[in-house]
# Entry
Amino acid sequence: MSIIVYTESENGKLKKTALEVVSYAKAIADQMSTTVTAVAINADNTESLGNYGASKVLSIKNDALNTFNAKSYAAAIEQAAKQEDAKVVIVSSSADSKYLAPLLAVGLNAGYVSNVVEAPSSVSPFTVKRSAFTNKAFANTEITTDVKVVGLSNNSFGLVESGESTSVEDFSPSLPEPDVTVESVDKATDKVSIADAEIVVSGGRGLKGPENWGMIEELAEILGAATACSKPVSDLGWRPHSEHVGQTGKPVASNLYIAIGISGAIQHLAGINSSKVKVVINTDPEAPFFKAADYGVVGDAFEVVPKLIEKLKAFKAQNA
Amino acid sequence: MKILVCISHVPDTTSKINFTDGDTKFDTNGVQFVINPNDEFGLTRAMWFKEKQGASVAVVNVGGAETEPTLRKALAIGADNAIRVNTEATDSFAVAKQLAKVVSDGGYDLVIAGRESIDYNGGMVPGMLAAMLDANYITNCIGLEVDGTSAKAIREIDGGKETVSTSLPLVIGGQKGLVEESDLRIPNMRGIMMARKKPLTVLEPIDANAETKAVSFVKPAPKGAVKLVDADNIDELVSLLHNEAKVI
# Structure
């Protein structure tokens, strides 16, 4: 009756969220006096998951799973969970995991709670804290079914090292016909995505036009950050929709969020509320963002950002 | 093509969120309810299928009578008829069960729901519904074309997008991009008048137990005051982020 955790990889390399969900699963396993079994699909070096608490890895290697398909992936994880008689299954909050988790939950007759931000406050009844109302509140939620699926909010638990010796076993689930065929993928391989980013640099209407995004991108590059924007900026077509963060855009749960020329509408603040440290740079000291931020600079972005870039370059050179 | 658009009745994005009954219930006092924005993008795309491809469009909500103004708004935007399953929306699983019954009884080819509701943000209903119906499923959908029984869609993925092909019956979790913000329609007087006469059917629920239960709500702890750094002293900001916040 171990805990199953789905550890995502990209081109064979385990993602950081994979290590986070294993760390989280280990915390629950300790609460329930059991062990963690990771399910990995076409991933390499899976024995390294032991460093975060997995004592067993079910390693699936199958070319039919080279392209993500929610139905096939859910079926594979479901069979692993059934083989291990798992009572708890953990997934991340990546786009792919959120896609497959409802299918997995129905397949396992399991209650599913997404956007969970902490280890369970109790395992009997099984109660977890999840964000709700786009981070304007949290809901302590009980899962009443025998088998439970938990979706962990990215960056909420962190990585916890715990040296387990790991056995890696081959696992060959039977796969359904995929319901969807991927025709083409359009993904910038050199850029960090908002979902995976530890730092996000975000620009608003205060930047006056899309031609001024060069300094935002430069700042992001120095910090290894993803770029994002406010809703008006995406509505005006200055930046792609995929960069829009806020209540009707993407949620951001980064370690550091830097808002430049964003006043801080309630919908925007809701979307970035889970970020740990927030910095605002804005000319208007009355901008609502200053009430939500940890650090603020009242000043013109066109003066402050180049200075920040210069200082960060010096800092990086010193700490390299 | 028969389209069903699932409509969540949610607090407007500007709402202040409060709780009552010892923090166990959402406080609806003074809150304006709207069509869930992700659902509205889907509804607007459905209108396009209606006008260009002759599709019929029904809207559905699982909820009490208080959600009917939201369904009427969807009718005023242009849906042909509305269905309300008369039961409290307790959790995603129970809602998906009710919807699955509506879909199989109504023989819909395409179900469009929002990627997630902006109140509980579960992101579960469309996927659970697809699994219950054994229908094809695409979420985070930012583009959809249907030709006969085949469909082409664009799905937003972390850091990009992918183009996929599939076939009906299909369940979609939609979001902005299905149509643009500027394509959204504000109901006009004629639409509102016509909506009053369009059928709104109330169905009694089937048995469907919730699998999860929100036992209590908490609001985030109030934030400490912002630490202001002088615009001429950006060194200090770098130092604070490194030494105090430890994020760089």
